[in-house]
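Hi,

I'm pasting everything inline rather than attaching a file, because the server keeps stripping attachments. The sequence lines come first, and each chain or strand is labelled.
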Amino acid sequence: MSAVAAASLLEVEDLRVRFALPGRHLVAVDGVSFRIEPGEVFGLVGESGCGKTVTCRSLIRLFGGSPPKSIDGTVRFAGRDLGTLDAREWSALRGSEISMIFQDPMTSLNPTMRVGAQIAEGLQQHRGLGAREARAAAIDMLGAVGVPAAERRHHEYPHAFSGGMRQRVLIAIALACRPKLLIADEPTTALDVTVQDQILKLILKLRADLGMSVLLVTHDIGVVAQTCDRVAVMYAGKIVESGTTAQVVTRPAHPYTRALLAALPAHTRRGEKLRPIDGEPPNLAQPPAGCRFHPRCAFAVEACRAVVPPPIEVEAGHRSACLRALEIG
Amino acid sequence: MSTTVPTHAGDDVADPGAPLLSAHGLAKRFKIAGGAGTPLRRGPRRHVQALRDVSIEIHPGETLGIVGESGCGKSTLARCLSGLDAADTGTIHWQGRPMADGSTALERARRVQMVFQDPYASLNPRITLAQALDEVLLVHALASSRAERTERVDELLLTVGLAPRLKHQLPHALSGGQRQRISIARALAVGPQVLIADEPVSALDASIQAQIINLLEELRERLRIAFVFISHDLNVVRHISDRIAVMYFGQVVESADTDALFAQPAHPYTRALLAAIPQTDPARRSLVPALAGELPDPTAPPRGCSFSTRCPWVVEACRAQEPALLEQAPGHAVRCSNPAARTAGGPDPFAASTGESRVPTR
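And the predicted assembly:
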């Protein structure tokens, strides 16, 4: 194991996830590589269908009812190759060292179980706490995520909580065992803007208190700008640009990132027309040849139709998978 | 293309100076199932007051933005304005006369149309786009023959930027953006003068959102339709609206011209809403939430000002009496009785990101 691999908490190399469709297959994630350092908030940003959720789920091998046909590439977590784990080792890892929170706080909780018991469950399972200790720890955790009157409310069922409070409960469940990595897939998309603001700031506070790393998946560049240390931009199953948040958001070096930022109403004066990206994202069962963004790209040249662009370092730590990255960066 | 969609302007102009559509003192209450009781006896019946004393005006050709969070009553307001729901009290006027005066339900439907948030749920999955549009033309008797209807369907599709060859598709074959275009075409088919769009771009990706917003702005200019644009996204509302009303807990708490609202937000809730929007400038970060606490229980509203439970400027008087919506400058009304709170506004959190476009154009 190299020295660099030992330093990163999570190391994803050349991840490729294929799903079987009738008569063909679809590569939802195609050669994705990134690293997350201890204590870092890393953002994965992109539009629907770009592969960001499949990437997250591949990291912990939880797919619900539709598992992929194959997952290739290596994922190393705290120096361990996750590809070699058996089912028992996976259950020991999930919820303990790696936790995940999902987009929809309405469907991710068990409606027939008191919230305190749902938080305590993991503590009993993974940390071997007794019922009384786990209950006390669950109440502490509820208080830590900002649920008022935790002493009383741990006894209630999920239906008694608002959307924002349910998301706090999910965060409490995810963080109860003090994981090293929290994977948060669109954790605030279903929430109102003032509640989103509360939850994102809570995640940042807990990151500082507990020293955990966070993989934050979002479609909202504003959320990235406000919370992430580093970010990778995904398009059609590939990472097209990565760097520190300041590099990617203020000096975008990939035409897709530039177009995505330029399309935001906040970046257009009132009375001016918005600048949408023409066309729609490609069908991943038949992706375009060469660069997948070339049919929608204002900078495309002939070579873009033929060559799959490799990531080019445009400045230290800032990479763009565009043949013309150095011209436009 | 300017003649493709007929408007029924001038049908019955009563008072030329009057607003096109106005609501006065709307209130709407919903019953909810009995609360916690015992298995044998239901708890007391409870009510949610979705709208409390809401008055707004929409003038010809203007866009009124309505912002607020879940449960603030913005969708109920939209449904009352469009006639889908009846308000309990209050009146709705069309060109200065009561909406229902001497008009049929179909006539009223041709004045005000709605576009909904979820284009996946608002189209019938079993009929083609052509059938969906044809049905509207048939019900409203807007074409004299099948051939004329077919022609109008093609025109409507072109109006919203879709190729007429798509018309024999079912909704599932379309993308989210294309479906929302069809929802807009269906609303335009009757030639409305007011289009109420309830979160029309919230379900769409950013790059597609911009396409739909541009389409709505184009239609507004070409057809001179007035818009009521409802959204929780202040960046979008700011871009499209002439005036904005901010709603909280069933009431309008502030209304002003768009520029005035962003330059001098006077209600503490408006300021919190502005501060909570994640800005795309990583250099402007804050670790303190813009607003603490939660919405009050809608079945047991707080006494006095409904924002008093979360307001950092709350004083005793706020809890004693409900403040009225008062004009503090011409066209700028605020529902806040504490002068210190109204003038406590900090710098415009949007100034840096909207004054100058930092992202180069393509």
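The longest helix of chain A spans residues 193-210.

If the labels don't parse on your end, tell me and I'll reformat.
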